[in-house]
Specification:
The chain is an alpha/beta fold and 174 residues long. The protein is built from seven helices and six strands; from the N terminus they run βαααααβααββββ. The protein has a domain of 106 residues. 14% of the residues are buried.
Length: 174
Amino acid sequence: MAALSVPSIPPPKSELPYPPIHRNAKFVILSDWDDLTDNYGFGNQRRRELNLEILDGKITFRDAFRDMLASIPLPFEECKEILKRDIKLDPGFAQFYAWCKSAGIPFVIVSSGMEPLIRAVLINLIGEEDAASIDIISNDVMTDETGRWRIKYRHPDRRVLCLNSRTRYDANRE
């Protein structure tokens, strides 16, 4: 069986550090995480409308996501506590993560969300030591002294090529 050759492409410019690249690993598990806006922001219906607008090329993901997050009227620390309280992992996640760890398979979370929220949920569900060992590639958050917050995007450049089954567009076209 031939080995898969992965070209060495430099990662895009990022304002946040990248976790280590696991080039020598036989396997790497990538996992995606979602979503706070349905219950505390403008709700499922508006989120679904924005998702369709993204797919139709009417709005960029970045702008839609910013609107979704802006619809949440709660301070950041309260959001973190709500997520820790309400999010439940798939029943087999902890066991699967333990297996990955014992087999030396890196587990990486890739998310458009924010690392402090993801990390808080992980700590609550699998413990601080295991949560700290999981690499997270996501955005960050900026807060002010009043508790107001906004997303800090990993990639400051708005130029993103978006591909999907319906359309192809350059998000920088605006």
